[in-house]
Description:
Layout: E1 2-10, H1 14-21, E2 34-41, E3 44-51, E4 54-66, E5 70-75, E6 81-91, E7 94-103, H2 108-115, H3 118-137
Antiparallel strand pairs: 1-7, 2-3, 3-4, 4-5, 5-6, 6-7
Amino acid sequence: MATIEESIEVDVPIRVAYDQWTQFEDFPRFMQGVESVTQTDATHLHWKTKIAGVEREYDAEITEQHPEERVAWRSIDGKTNAGVVTFHHVSDTSTKVMVQIDWEPDTVVEKAGSVVGADDHRVKADLAKFKEFIESRGSATGAWRGDVER
């Protein structure tokens, strides 16, 4: 199992950063390789990805979610992965977003990429795109403020 840990500080209030992160269907706007995310209900997502020419689909479940604190998930079929995104108040206008992802590379290319840190670089680049996206907007495209207990 490979683990990725990355963080970034975004110049928006914690509510704005969190609210945007709950708009899963907008992920293709700032995550390379994510073709689409469809939220099928409050706690289930269907993902379509295309990374290094390999297309995959899988379902994921939100396992814990608390406004302005955290969103945690795990895959329930397909590609094995799980993770958590946490939000940390830095100031009234700044938030630290931290991502931890555990995933199982299964192809030779994925295993090699993980060894050389390609997965870490991809998440870091996606967080930079998230920063650019949310700071340029100044507000979230929507919000879901519900709680999902662990």
